[in-house]
Amino acid sequence: MSVGSLSETAAATGRGSVRIGVDVGGTTVHAVAVGPDDVVLAEHRMPTRRGAEAVVRDIVAAAAAVAPGVAREDAQGASDALSSRGVVAVGLGVPGLVDRRTGRVRAAVNLGLDDVALGPLVARGVGVPVVVENDVNAAALGAARVVGETDSLALLNVGTGIAAGLVHEGRVVRGANGFAGELGHLPAHPTARPCPCGQRGCLETVASGMALSRDWPVASGHPAVDLLAAVRAGRPRAIEVWTRFVDAVGLAAQAVATAYDPAVIVLGGGLSALGEPFRDGVCAALDSRAAHSPFLRSMAVAGRVVLLPASPPVAPLGAAAVAQVAAAGA
Length: 330
Ligand SMILES: [Zn+2]
Known about the structure:
By secondary structure, this protein is α/β, with parallel strands linked by helices. It folds into two domains: 6-136, Nucleotidyltransferase, domain 5, CATH 3.30.420.40; 150-262 and 270-307, Nucleotidyltransferase, domain 5. It has ten helices and twelve strands. The chain has a five-stranded mixed sheet with strand order 3-2-1-4-7. Helix 4 packs across helix 10 (314-327) and helix 7 crosses helix 8. The protein is globular and about 60 Å long. The two termini are 25 Å apart. Bound molecules: zinc ion. Zinc ion is lined by residues 185, 195, 197, 199, 202, 204.
């Protein structure tokens, strides 16, 4: 997968086969236009604004920015339908509970969205079919394509919180009510810390960026980066915090392996930017657990854990993969 040339853009436009994927994160709206064979034709990032009206407007603007050709605007400043620019569908990855059938989004707290008909509202702005998917599920689809494992993969997304996206035989596994992979609130950690969800010991209270911010507060910069530097410097308190963190992420990987038995577990989310030390720490924690358990050794969880590549961007690519469903008329 690569950023395509202008001639590829023109060829893709001619076939009317461009899909657009937009990942709407807590800080960034990230859009890509994707041609045949998942070639990335264009990419655009803009800061996220909160509230339904701003989110819809920004998604439409981001999609227009990556669509092939030049936008024409009418007297009211509205862009023409993206279909005239070769776009067949738009896929969105958004946090919260997503009703795929209606495109409604609930409980997307970071975006200030609750019970908003996001799909229909964006469709009105872009003039092509829009499919909405939970952001981690969409990113899992993107990771499956990037890693080359679409049969059986879990994306363990470790960002502000922790959750898993699951792909089985090329499709997202959502469960009956969309809760499949929501393991952040599995009360499995022995620290038994209180969680805002009302339980104690949720994995998210230890295995998340939020937890690291609490356990390793820094005046400036990123807590995880600072923590890792302190671990390298041999500071005992840092080693204690880091060990507890990677052990809890390992526990989350073990929970995913036990529930879904995926062939590959991809470590993704914001904290995957820590790189190989993150994967090494999680794998060491898993190996340490397995040392005492023939059962865990037989599961060989550590051997399935890979780090999400820094590029291409799996979240908007996955959203574009979601759009393929609409483009195919399914
Ligand atoms: Zn919880």
